[in-house]
Amino acid sequence: MSTPPDVDLLHEFVARNSQPAFAELVSRYVNMVYSVAVRRVGNHHQAEEITQAVFIILARKARSLGRSTVLSGWLFHTARLTAANFQRSEIRRFHREQEAFMQSQSTESSAADWQEIMPHLDDAIAGLGARDRDAIVLRFINGRDNHHVAAVLGVTEGAAQVRVSRAVEKLRKILARRGVALSAAGLTGAIAAHSVQAAPAALAASVTAGAIQGAVLAASTVTLVKGTLNLMAWSKTQITIGLALIAVVGYQYARSSAQNSQLAAVRAQLTQAQQQLDAQADALRKIAEENSALAEDKRNAEAAAARLRAEKQLANANAASAATRNAASNSTASPSSDTTPPASGLARILADPVLKQYLVRKEFDKMRTRYESLLTTLNLSADQSDQFIQILGNARMTNIEIGVAFTQGQISRADAHQAADAAAASVATQLQSLLGSAGYAQFQQYNQELPAQTAVKLLNNQLTDNPLTADQSTRLFQLVMTEPFHLTHGIAGDSDAVMFSSPENVENYFQQVADSHQRLLQQAAGFLSADQLSAFGTVLTNTLADMRSRTASLMQKQ
Fold it and tell me: Which residues of 337-359 are buried (b: 16+ CB within 10 A; e: fewer)?
């Protein structure tokens, strides 16, 4: 047998003074009303008195409630008003007791969210509009499903679900302004689990008797009922006054409309003139937008042409630089004292503003890629990260310019060494200022580990079918770290200050690097497969060849 709706039970009570119908309504909502009262006053005996008063008010006001009234929402609102009225008369006498009770309630509660919500819940729900308040009470305090909420509110189930979601979000924002920050799931879960407490077993019977059977009531209960009814009447009076004011304003507006009609012709003329001006302004704005678009297209075309021109010039310069490196490599083996240094490919790039800007951008991109993981570890801001890349990118360009000046014979070997040392000291000072002592120490450690990290990465790039295991990667990293840094940093693509030395010193340095690579291969044979070891040999061979090529392109002929 289906349960009769609230509105039918209320109609039965009004029409026939049906005690069973009223008792059914009490049994449905006594827990909710009692819980609102307990939360408000913090005293179970006082909450029972408030609950009694609320259902007496329902019995007296039942005839005035329309069929569209959501009874649970109306009872929630009435319970809050009754509790507030009770508090105003009792707050001085029971303030400390109430505070102690609320504290004990918070201590006893096992749900931390509920402890935060409880002191603010009723006022927060009261701050919602009537529709949102009804939705919250029905869904979470009464525990109804969306189908029931939709039926009571007279909307579709989908619309009811949307209304409940929006009401929850509004309630969450109200609580957040009161210092209670919870997710929507945490809020609704706490309300559903803790907002309704079981009323004393005998309370429903005493409420029904007091409301409709004329049982003897305590004087305080009678006073509470009268006070709450007065509050409800005053609320209606305020609405009536507001409507009356609106009517007065409307009347005054109607009277002034006669005067306003005299200005209508002038306003029409002004409106027409304004429309003409707006049309002219729109036409001018469209012309300006078209001109701006044409200018932007022109700038883009010029930029694209400049990029193509720069890439072509850079390709030509790289070809010339490759020829220079080959010649320099040959002369390294057989140095001659009377040869004139050939034009450096880098010198050509630096002499061309477009190519130089292209080179600067590529060097800065390299720095950002190289130190991307370090920037994440240091947790720098965007501005600090840009400053970090700026420092290192400028240092790279300074070293390139020193190398080119040395290659062109513009500075001596000693001056080149001194300039490179000064640039390194300047970079260290700037980075220490930016990163602090701890951050700079991380930077130095990162640079020390970079050759080993790069060796593992390059080898895995070679191994498509048989990549390194985690253990092999760790052992290879540790193996590379055992070699002197000045012999391994070429793996990461860095050049050595030996490029400013004599050809004999350069060749001696490369022999040391080759010996270091041989040691790495011999020890790596203990944990790499034959194919992996062969690929590692290719990585080291390519590294040494690249170092020779870079050094030869910058080394001054003697």
Answer: eeeebbebbbbbbbebeebbebb
**Per-residue tokens: 12:** 């039965």
Q: Would you state the torsion angle of the CA atoms of residues 274, 280, 285, 288, taken in this order, to the nearest 10 degrees?
A: -150
Q: pLDDT per residue over 448-457, tens digit each? A: 999 999 999 9
Q: Residue 13 is inside which H or E element, if any?
A: helix 6-16
Q: Are 355 and 348 in contact (CB under 8 A)?
A: yes
Instruction: Kindly report whether the global pTM for this prediction surpasses the value 0.70.
Output: no
Q: Which long-range contacts (CB under 8 A, 24 or more apart) does 414-419 make?
A: 416/500, 417/497, 417/500
Q: Compare 522 and 507 and report the one with higher pLDDT.
A: 522
SS percent in the chain: helix, strand, coil, step 5: 80, 0, 20
Q: How far is CA 421 from CA 480, 523, 552, in A?
A: 26, 35, 21
CB 62 within 8 A of CB 9: no
Pick from 503, 494, 496: which is nearest to 556 by CA? 503
CA distance 263 to 266: 5
CA distance linking residue 370 with residue 320, whole number of Å: 28
Residue with tokens 């220490």: 432
pLDDT confidence tier of residue 258, bands split at 50, 70 and 90: low
Residue with tokens 């290879």: 476
pLDDT over threshold 90, residue 440: yes
19 token code pair: 């005690």
Quote the distance between the C-alpha of residue 526 and its chain's center: 48
Mean pLDDT of 288-311: 72
Q: What does the pLDDT read at residue 463? A: 84
**Residues whose CB is less than 8 angstroms from the CB of residue 459 and which lie 6 or more positions away in sequence, other chains included:** 468, 476, 532, 535, 536, 539
Average pLDDT value for residue range 305-314: 62
Q: Predicted confidence band at 202 (pLDDT cuts at 50, 70, 90)?
A: confident
Provide mean pLDDT across the span 391-406.
87
Q: How far is CA 438 from CA 31, 71, 402, 449, in A?
A: 61, 66, 31, 17
Which segments of 109-183 does DSSP mark as H helices, in order?
112-117, 121-126, 130-136, 146-153, 157-177
Nearest partner of 208 among 59, 400, 408, judged by Cα? 59
- pLDDT value, residue 362: 87
CA distance linking residue 100 with residue 145, whole number of Å: 36
Please name the residue that has the structure tokens 């005299």: 262
Q: What is the pLDDT of residues 511-528, one digit of tens each?
A: 999 999 999 999 999 999
Contact, 2 vs 62, CB < 8 A?
Answer: no
Angstrom distance (rounded) from CA 249 to CA 253: 6
pLDDT band at 28 (very low <50, low <70, confident <90, very high): very high
What residue has token string 């096992």? 110
Q: What is the rounded average pLDDT for all residues in the chain?
A: 81
Q: What is the DSSP letter of 337?
A: T
